[in-house]
Every structure is written in C-alpha cells, then in structure tokens.
Predict the 3D structure of the following.
Amino acid sequence: MGFSLTITHIIMVIASVILASSFVACAFYTSNIVQNEFTQGVSNAKNTIGTQLDIVYATANTTSPSVFVIYAKNTGKLPINDFTYLDIYAGNYGKAQLYSYDPAAGQGSGKFSVTDANGDGIWEPRETATIYAYPTNAIEGTVLEARIVPSNGIGSDYLFSAPTF
C-alpha cells in the first residue's frame, strides 16, 4: 500500500506541475498580446500627434482661371510624402467642396496639387507647401473657407474674404 501511495503522489505532483506550466504559458501569451496591442496603440497615437498641418494663409483667384491658393505649414514631427490621403475643402463658407489629389490638377478639374517649398515631393516638418485647388465652377461669394484634413493627424481651417479687383 505504501508503494501505490508514493506513485499516486508522484502522479499528482507531475500533473500539478504540468497544470501550473500551462497556466503560466497562457498568462505569458496573453500578456504578450496585451503588450503588442498597447505598443500599436501608442504608435498610432504618436503618428496622429506627429502629423499636424496648419493653414498659414489662403486666397482665391476669382477671375479666370479660378483657383484657391492655400499656404500650409507642416507643424508636426513627421514628413508627408503621400498626398492621396490628404483632404482639401475650399469654397464658400459652410459650402466648401472636397478636392482630391492629382499632381496634374488644372483649371476646372475639381482636384488639387501640392508644391512643397524645396520641390522634392516630401513635405518635411517646418516646411510650408503651396496647395492649388481648382474648382469646377467660378468662385463666388464674399466669405470663403479652406480646410486641410490629413488621414490621421490634426488639420486646420481658415476663413478669408474673396479679393476684390
């Protein structure tokens, strides 16, 4: 009877060690997932905070060819080199039109183009870029607005009056 009791104790000890090891492995796996999710969240927040654009000045050519000219500064910490996910809104106050990016945007296209200060195609931090937004119709109205919204990050808006000639 003593020998079977010893074997039973050994089996119980081995089973408890295996059970404890399984629990520890699950705990490590779960904590690794939580750590990865936290790291990804911090990285996304860093990108959002690191991308900030401010409109410094905007004007409009109300005569032909109609164009909104927006001067914006990259006040964030990250460069921007893909302008396809940049939204530009310009037009009469409260009725601005959305413009999508096209490097070959021109008169009446409803698109915008971006020219950075040094012409390398990368909008670096602390660099001012010129955005040309070409409306499909003539620019009318006295109070105009321009808004720039990056896909992730902090954008800017600007109210201005139409120039009188």
